[in-house]
Amino acid sequence: MKAIVIRAPGDSDVLKLQEVEEPKIKEDEVLIKVEAAALNRSDIYEREGSYPSPEGVSPYPGLECSGTIESVGENVSRWKVGDKVCALLSGGGYAEKVAVPSGQLLPVPAGVSLKDAASFPEVACTVWSTILMRSRLSAGETLLIHEGSSGIGVFAIQIAKQFGATVLVTAGSEEKLAFCKDLGADVCINYKTEDFVTRIEEETGGREVNLGVFFAKRLTIQGATLRNRTLEEKAVIVKEVEKNVWPVIVEGKVKPVVCKHFPLVEAAEAHRHMESSKHVGKILLLP
């Protein structure tokens, strides 16, 4: 099969399409023939050498994909050959085929094309696990999203509004802010033309972070990544996403936002497009 190989840490030109060995699945994995893979900012960090893949994970980049199941391991019961799925990956999406633990698979939501379904797994699992599972965003609370027009941003705006939050976003152009507004953002701030800190103070009535309150109320500041979590943790997140997020996608209340498609051989150009920050939503690679 063909896959994008990072020949050495560096700029986008280090990405090359090469013939590589087809992945072998384990007893609890499936093999997906990839329809589309989505770019994430962390792919750029991996290419540059600052975000290496975990031990034992595919050396090829790509943290989410969609496609058709080609074979299943002997311990896999829910999924079968021919199923249309999308998947949360630890790596390997920039390829014609990828092996995936069965607990990291999601059915393609009704009403979403197989191709566009690749735009959902990573952002859905990231947003749900951080904003809802860990931080327990509730109706009436305020959520600030920096770079609201990014892949994470456009999804977070939509899902936060579904849960009754007031959403503030920042972005670097009026066109991006208009797009965020159309998605449901309540307050849209151009960080290039105004002081977003001052604007947020105005919009929230001066509610700033007070470290004294943090101590008194035993509050926490949280940070999280998905890639290095255990298979068990990822399976729990994926299950939660299917239960809580997939229904609003099926109802059309949360939609895929895809900026541009690139053939897999043009992965370097796709990275340059992401690095230009001109995109709104997700960028997809098509094997």
- Mean pLDDT equals 94
Q: What is the correct CATH architecture of the largest domain? A: Alpha-Beta Complex
Examine the coordinates and then state which fold CATH places here, giving the name of the CATH topology of the largest domain. Answer: Quinone Oxidoreductase, Chain A, domain 1
Helix and strand string, N-terminal first? EEEHEEEEHEHEHEHHHHEHE
What name goes with the CATH superfamily of the largest domain?
Medium-chain alcohol dehydrogenases, catalytic domain
Tell me, what's the shape? globular
**How many DSSP-defined strands?**
12
**Terminal residue distance:** 10 Å
- How many separate domains make up the residues? 2
The CATH C-level name of the largest domain is Alpha Beta
Judged by helices, strands and strand pairing, the structural class is alpha/beta
Main sheet overview: 7 strands, mixed
- Tally of helical segments: 9
**Which stretches of 5+ consecutive residues score pLDDT under 50?**
none
What is the beta-strand fraction?
Answer: 15-25%
In helices, the fraction of residues equals 25-40%
Describe what you observe in this structure:
There is one protein chain. The protein has helices spanning 41-48, 121-134, 151-162, 174-183, 196-203, 211-217, 231-244, 246-250, 267-275, and strands at 2-6, 15-19, 29-38, 64-72, 84-88, 97-101, 105-107, 142-145, 166-171, 187-190, 258-263, 282-286. The termini are close together. The strands form three sheets. Strands 3, 4, 5, 6, 7, 11 and 12 form a seven-stranded mixed β-sheet that branches. It has a three-stranded parallel β-sheet with strand order 8-9-10, with helices on both faces. The protein folds into two domains: 2-119 and 253-286, Medium-chain alcohol dehydrogenases, catalytic domain (Quinone Oxidoreductase, Chain A, domain 1); 136-217, NAD(P)-binding Rossmann-like Domain (Rossmann fold). α2 (121-134) packs across α3 (151-162). With 287 residues, it is α/β, with parallel strands linked by helices. Helix content is 30%, strand content 23%.
